[in-house]
Write a structure and sequence with these properties.
about 280 residues; alpha+beta; Jelly Rolls; seven-stranded antiparallel sheet; ConA-like_dom_sf; lectin; Concanavalin A-like lectin/glucanase; membrane
Length: about 280
């Protein structure tokens, strides 16, 4: 009887693990499309979205958009920014001088943010990590008067920020001290275009989507082609469920057959009559 108890216990563990693994992979993945049709942006124009209007983010997010620049700027400009800035720029004839306020810099946050470099409009994706308010890099100049699809994907578990242009992976930024540093998110408003302390782009933006998870490369390609990456996850859910449950049942049957075979293959010791 004790062997049967062990067997039933093993069966329960296998099935429950199969179901729990399925459940862990089924976190609600969604997005909000803030801008759909092309909107003309000037350096002084912006759209603001409050934190409560965006999907809830745990430790990952992605932003995708299409952008068409009409001109470069002689200083750094904003595509989008979410967080708190404690610096500003003072305009002169052709340059902006950076001025710092005497405030607590530990409160500064720029996760997620995307800026364009002066004169060439190279992408400058930025995040805030532990002890570093501004953690960024520069990659890939944008061509004027041409539509580009940009994907900004961020994952704290993977400690990495990826950038895609027109469906191609063009660069990444990784956290080096993975044990002691994390990406710091915030509950500030999302600014598209001009930020109160920075000018915005001169051009157009469309199909601006804010996802609550980190898109894979295949999902970035789906977004680039105009599809909905979250639908592929929903469509695969029954397959994942029954696939995982089927593996669990198969393992249970294998354990049962092995137990039955072992039980009947071992001969009991022969008894002897007393003389």
């Amino acid at each position: 009887m004790m062997n049967y108890y062990y067997f039933y216990y093993l069966v329960i563990i296998i099935i429950s693990n199969s179901i729990s693994v399925f459940g862990q992979n089924q976190e609600i993945r969604t997005y909000r499309e803030v801008i759909t049709k092309p909107v003309v942006f000037t350096p002084e124009f912006y759209r603001t979205v409050s934190h409560t209007e965006l999907p809830i983010v745990k430790d990952e997010l992605s932003i995708t958009l299409k952008i068409n620049l009409a001109g470069h700027a002689p200083y750094c400009i904003t595509v989008f920014h979410k967080g708190i800035l404690l610096m500003t720029f003072l305009k002169t004839s052709s340059v902006k001088l950076k001025l710092y306020f005497h405030l607590d810099k530990t409160k500064e946050n720029c996760t997620p943010s995307l800026f364009l470099s002066p004169n060439e409009s190279a992408l400058i994706p930025s995040i805030t990590i532990t002890s570093i308010p501004w953690y960024n890099f520069s990659i890939a100049n944008l061509v004027l008067n041409q539509w580009h699809h940009i994907a900004y994907t961020l994952s704290d578990p993977e400690k990495r920020l990826n950038i895609y242009i027109d469906g191609k992976w063009v660069g990444s930024l990784s956290i080096q001290n993975v044990q002691n540093q994390s990406i710091i998110f915030n509950d500030s408003p999302l600014y598209i275009g001009k930020h109160p302390l920075y000018d915005g782009i001169n051009g157009q933006i469309s199909n601006f989507r804010y996802y609550n998870y980190c898109l894979s490369h295949n999902e970035v390609l789906m977004d680039y082609l105009g599809d909905d990456p979250t639908k592929s996850i929903v469509d695969e859910s029954p397959i994942r469920f029954f696939g995982g449950l089927g593996i669990g049942i198969f393992l249970c049957m294998a354990v049962f057959i092995c137990s039955y075979y072992i039980k009947h293959s071992i001969r009991r010791p022969r008894g002897y009559r007393p003389i």
